[in-house]
């Protein structure tokens, strides 16, 4: 039981010190202002011709596969985002215990 308590206490210390470091990092002005007038970038634009699809069935199949991939990616994005929100919410509640 004591081992679990020590582990949770260490996790809380690391979490809260990371939060304090992250908050302090936003207020740090070590780099100073940047003069954007001196920065000039030149970019070359190359036009690329797309090969024409000779087979309309093959083109339709490619768009369906892309659509399926986008649906799966969107679904996985929702799952990961929900899991992340759950973890952040639990950690927030845990950190809130120290500031009551």
Ends distance = 24 Å
The count of helical stretches stands at: 2
Average residue pLDDT: 78
Order of helices and strands: HH
Number of domains: 1
Biggest β-sheet: count, sense, barrel? Answer: none
Share of β-strand residues: under 5%
Outline type = flat
Low-confidence runs (pLDDT<50, min 5 residues)?
none
Task: Show the helix and strand layout.
Layout lengths: L1 H25 L29 H41 L4
Task: Give a written overview of the molecule.
The chain has 100 residues and is mainly α. It has one domain (2-26, 55-99). The protein is 66% helix and 0% strand. It contains 2 helices and no strands.
Comma- or semicolon-separated keywords:
single chain, 100 residues, mainly alpha
Structure at a glance:
With 100 residues, the chain is mainly alpha-helical. It has helices at 2-26, 56-96. The mean pLDDT is 78.
